[in-house]
Amino acid sequence: MKILVFSDTHGRTGGMLRAIAAHNPDTVLHLGDCAEDTKRVEKDYPMLPILKVCGNCDDYPHEQETREVSLGGMKLFMAHGHRHRVKWDLEPLLLAGQCAGAQMVLFGHTHRAVWETFGGMYVLNPGTAGIGPNKTFALLEIENGDVKRCEILPIPEKEPKQN
After folding, report:
1. How would DSSP label each residue in the chain?
2. pTM score > 0.70 for this model?
3. In this structure, is residue 92 part of a structural domain?
């Protein structure tokens, strides 16, 4: 299963749309700030599953702040990270993921990409897809409960070439 992971688009959807066009994912995850940006993706790709959580810049209460999902046979814990104080320490987020029985935690908020393991748990932050000089997203492939691939990639600057 190919999954694209975005966070912190802050109203800038073009890069997210270009990445989706270039990589043709099975699912998209958005980790907040601004989760509402996924409405453009839903319009352009109505059959593409999109799972999202709210961030500290999202001011609508109808989205979850955390989410537990199983994709490709692996349990994931999604959060923006502001409530877990990820700018200072990852331990609260790791504990929340552990309590949820997750094998991977995904978060945003810091605008800094991370792909590591801590105590046997995968930790992924795709960085910011919307603002700053280094806009990034994550390409994640999971099969039968194993991570086959995870890369932090730059947001494409141009539309992919059509064959």
Report:
1. -EEEEE---TT--HHHHHHHHHH--SEEEE-SSSGGGHHHHHHH-TTS-EEE---TT---TTS-SEEEEEETTEEEEEE-SGGGTTTT-SHHHHHHHHHTT-SEEE--SSS--EEEEETTEEEEE---SSSSSS-EEEEEEEETTEEEEEEEEEPPSSPPPP-
2. yes
3. yes
